[in-house]
């Protein structure tokens, strides 16, 4: 394998890189559009335009051999929505789209703002709270579990399960990658026991099993689709909310701006996602020998699509790409991916985040960090373990 500039001995999966990947990303972007990483045995695609090109080109860069960096996770993912191609992909996606598409969400009969008030207002009344433990890890899991109809006894397991699966996306030789293998087995064991009847009547989860009964999908697909909710909807949204409060505490002027002009809430959420992209990367496999930005990629090679790096690319977002500016037009960020596998849950994620931002804006004049935030370490997810703030 060749590279644009010879192999780079960059390791994206050390604790140091995971805690602050941005200097390494900048080095990768400066080195070339496509760089072979010996440490992860994949091509790193780090610039905005190239990340988008790979995501758009599913015929050459497929997900159907998995989207992680090791053979075990890739084998386990095969045939899921995330790791499939047409026609299967369209069939599976169609089932979730009934609830998650913009049209489906118009029928959502849950008052998310009221839900946000019930969680946020008691925290604000306390004067100080942990924006991750008390808010970000409470709101999305409760909302999603209610919508999907997850039984009460399973709910405390949702966050550890999701965290374990995202860890498993890492390179096979890193201890963190399989550190949650037992949790992943536990989740699969639970999924295998689910028949539609344990999921509440009328719930989104039950709708998946109804689709199987109606012959729209094969019965064995139902638990795998259910796992889209129990994994993909958790760590992502949770970490977006935790990072948001941290960014607002660090940038008080931006919070004041948002409070003065609530119409900035959607662009503020995009800006949080751009800057602190919750899912930092996935991979694709080259289906055939193909050229990418002038670099030959051999059939079977892994290509890492680096959403988090593309989102900091000053070629696209300008020289202040590393700054948090809520009035930036960041709507074309890559945090929800792009193209055929682009996040199907983004409408729900936006509704959740906008509701939380609105209720915070109504109740909080300013955030003050009580101590430096504690980073949560995960192979693929960027986020925080704890952000303790006092509020006025
Ligand atoms: C801020 C929150 C979220 C972020 C940052 C996020 C990020 C992403 C990204 C980057 C992808 C693209 C994967 C790829 O390129 O292969 C994706 C796909 C997906 N997301 Fe999300 N997501 C979020 C919330 C959600 C929610 C709330 C749900 C479910 C309710 C969800 C369900 C899915 C599913 C099922 C896919 C696979 C779609 C496909 O392969 O066609 N996500 N998400």
UniProtKB/TrEMBL annotation:
Keywords: Heme, Iron, Metal-binding, Monooxygenase, Oxidoreductase
Domain of life: Bacteria
Keyword Oxidoreductase: yes
InterPro entries for this protein: Cyt_P450, Cyt_P450_B, Cyt_P450_CS, Cyt_P450_sf
Family classification: Belongs to the cytochrome P450 family.
Name of the molecule in the record: Cytochrome P450
Source species taxonomy: Bacteria, Bacillati, Actinomycetota, Actinomycetes, Kitasatosporales
């Amino acid at each position: 394998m060749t590279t644009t500039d010879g192999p780079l001995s960059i390791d994206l999966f050390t604790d140091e890189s995971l805690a602050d990947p941005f200097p390494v990303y900048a080095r990768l972007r400066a080195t070339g559009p496509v760089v072979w990483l010996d440490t992860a045995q994949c091509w790193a695609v780090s610039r905005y335009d190239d990340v988008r090109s790979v995501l758009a080109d599913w015929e050459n860069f497929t997900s159907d051999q998995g989207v992680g960096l090791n053979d075990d996770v890739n084998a386990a993912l095969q045939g899921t929505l995330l790791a499939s191609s047409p026609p299967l992909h369209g069939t599976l996606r169609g089932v979730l789209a009934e609830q998650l598409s913009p049209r489906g969400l118009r029928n959502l009969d849950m008052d998310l703002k009221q839900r946000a008030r019930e969680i946020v207002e008691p925290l604000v009344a306390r004067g100080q709270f942990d924006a991750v433990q008390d808010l970000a890890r409470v709101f999305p899991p409760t909302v999603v579990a209610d919508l999907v109809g997850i039984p009460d006894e399973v709910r405390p397991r949702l966050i550890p399960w999701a965290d374990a699966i995202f860890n498993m996306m890492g390179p096979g030789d890193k201890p963190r990658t399989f550190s949650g293998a037992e949790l992943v087995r536990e989740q699969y064991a639970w999924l295998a026991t689910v028949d539609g009847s344990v999921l509440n009547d009328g719930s989104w989860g039950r709708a998946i099993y109804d689709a199987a009964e109606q012959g729209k999908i094969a019965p064995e697909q139902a638990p795998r689709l259910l796992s889209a909710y129990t994994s993909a909807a958790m760590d992502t949204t949770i970490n977006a909310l935790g990072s948001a409060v941290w960014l607002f505490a660090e940038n008080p002027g931006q919070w004041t701006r948002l409070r003065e002009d609530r119409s900035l809430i959607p662009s503020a959420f995009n800006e949080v996602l751009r800057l602190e992209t919750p899912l930092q990367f996935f991979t694709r496999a080259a289906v055939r020998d193909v050229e990418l930005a002038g670099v030959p990629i051999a059939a079977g090679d892994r290509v890492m699509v680096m959403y988090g790096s593309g989102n900091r690319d000053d070629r696209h977002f300008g020289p202040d790409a590393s700054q948090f500016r809520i009035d930036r037009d960041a709507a074309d960020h890559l945090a929800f991916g792009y193209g055929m596998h682009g996040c199907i849950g983004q409408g729900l994620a936006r509704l959740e985040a906008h509701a939380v931002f609105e209720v915070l804006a109504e109740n909080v004049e300013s955030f003050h960090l009580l101590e430096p935030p504690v980073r949560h370490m995960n192979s693929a997810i960027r986020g925080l373990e704890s952000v303790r703030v006092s509020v006025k």
